[in-house]
């Protein structure tokens, strides 16, 4: 399981893992001691992970490989369901039902003269590829 939550949400996520499960913590606000996790959740492996640990050269190499895969069409953007920002309640209701795959995005209407449009992801994972409306 890849996690970036904290507190009771981390605890709930850990309870979902079966013996032999792996928990990779990417969050910075609630790191846990791997020994404590092993004692509380037998058979679960816990590891805190920080991409910076990989170093600049490896990160650059990985990003280059990802860019090549995107360019070649081997990787596709996540599917996105968009909601106008004025329908934010409907968007959060949709997310709370947990039936979506990919991103749920709030869109802003174009600015004066159609000069801009922006989107904000509701996903805890963070921003993905640009969303096309």
What shape does the CA trace take?
extended
Q: Classify the secondary structure makeup into a structural class.
A: alpha/beta
Low-confidence stretches: 123-133
Largest sheet report = 3 strands, parallel
Helicity range: 25-40%
Rg for CA atoms: 19 Å
Keywords:
single chain; 133 residues; alpha/beta; three-stranded mixed β-sheet; extended
Quick overview:
The protein has 133 residues and is an alpha/beta fold.
Describe this structure in words.
7% of the residues are buried. This protein has four helices and six strands; from the N terminus they run βαβαβαβαββ. By secondary structure, it is an alpha/beta fold.
Outline the fold blueprint:
Blueprint (H helix, E strand, L loop, with lengths): L1 E2 L4 H9 L5 E4 L8 H7 L4 E4 L7 H17 L7 E5 L3 H9 L6 E5 L11 E3 L12
């Amino acid at each position: 399981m890849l996690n970036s939550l904290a507190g009771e949400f981390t605890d709930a996520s850990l309870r979902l893992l079966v013996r032999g499960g792996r928990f990779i913590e990417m969050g910075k606000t609630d790191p846990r001691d791997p020994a404590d996790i092993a004692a509380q959740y037998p058979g679960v492996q816990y590891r805190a992970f920080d991409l910076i640990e990989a170093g600049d050269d490896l990160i650059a190499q990985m990003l280059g490989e990802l860019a090549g895969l995107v360019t070649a069409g081997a990787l596709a953007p996540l599917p996105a369901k968009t909601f106008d920002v004025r329908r934010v309640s409907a968007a959060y209701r949709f997310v709370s039902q947990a039936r979506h795959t990919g991103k749920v995005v709030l869109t802003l209407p174009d600015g004066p003269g159609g000069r801009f449009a922006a989107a904000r992801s509701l996903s805890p994972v963070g921003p993905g590829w640009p969303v096309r409306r």
